[in-house]
Cytochrome P450 family 2 subfamily C member 8
Amino acid sequence: MAMNSWAEDLFQLFQISKKDMESFSAMERRGSRWSIEERVQEEAQFLVEELRKTEAQPFDPTLILSLAPCNVICSTLFNERFQYDDEKLLYLMSLLNENSKKISSPWNQMYNLWPKLIKHLPGEHRAFSKRLTNVKNFILEKVKEHQESLDQNSPRDYIDCFLSKMEQEKHNPMSEFDLENLAVCGSNLFVAGTETTSSTLRYGLLLLMKHPEVQAKVHEEIDSVIGHNQRPSLKDKMKMPYTEAVLNEIQRYITLLPSNLPHAVTKDTKFRQYVIPKGTTVFPLLSSVLLDCKEFPNPETFDPGHFLDKNGSLRKTDYFIPFSLGKRACVGEGLARVELFLFLTTILQNFSLEPLVEPRELEIKPLVTGLLNVPPPFKLRLLPR
Ligand code: HEM
């Protein structure tokens, strides 16, 4: 996979014009900015150091596997990462965690269906909105600091890029670059980019314990391609078809967002024998494609062979759509793929995953299926390799 520069990644995230992108890329080359890959690599090392502190004792990986992706978003937005015991990071994480627990609750689903009606009633949607406002306020504090030290010629992060764009468009009354939108976009990145990546990683560890033969093959590939003395990097990925197939299979099998996000049809649309009137809300089910039994025989079975051809090379398929399709597809796909590869390979380079019960006794059915397929809780031991 060709790797984007830091500025390209940011602009892809925010979809700013190509011309702007060229000028920012030039600025980046003059400066000493880090690529997204380097940021994730660095976070992966902090993650492993934190995991080492468990000293092969049983632990629940939920919190720590959320803090690492959350730190990557912090680094992307405001060029700062936090220690895993930093109060600010833990506060932010508690807001995000509480909201992701509540997002699939029946009450919040009702709110999504009838927002105009329910917003006037008391209920848990109010606490949900309050926590979201607190995430926005957290971002706005960072924006204030950035405004004081902004150098438009040398953007450090997403907030700097956004502020520069605001400055360029300050005489355009139609501009969508304002502080409110900056806070909303920033909080979207936190909400959409933390729980998704962390749940996938967590589910991934569980599936690798359930299938020790798969874990052994990934270890083998890591040992032969990367070894023990260098950090995993994206250039290794192309030489690791088995690991890539495992990552794809984790995403396919868990079908993290089975019903996708709601979309609305923009015009009257004929679909099979139906006409869907303009404005109708539709849920384009990702599960119907990811679990297609012609494309993936025995779709309910975890089998990296679903993504390998006869020669053991990676099998590409249009049916692999965990990030959805089209204009509204996940803006964080590039970042998420980098994180999944680097976090998982760095963990497995350093540790063997050991379950506390026999693999066949491990429960792998989702705890909850709502907006997300939430992995069941589990503990594990990490044995240093
Ligand atoms: C394994 C990780 C991830 C998965 C499986 C995933 C999947 C998805 C899916 C299915 C959608 C809905 C697309 C649609 O409406 O058609 C989405 C939207 C979105 N994703 Fe991700 N995502 C992941 C990670 C990330 C990350 C790391 C970021 C942030 C950098 C991110 C940012 C977003 C945003 C902002 C949206 C909303 C787009 C909109 O409102 O239209 N995602 N994601």
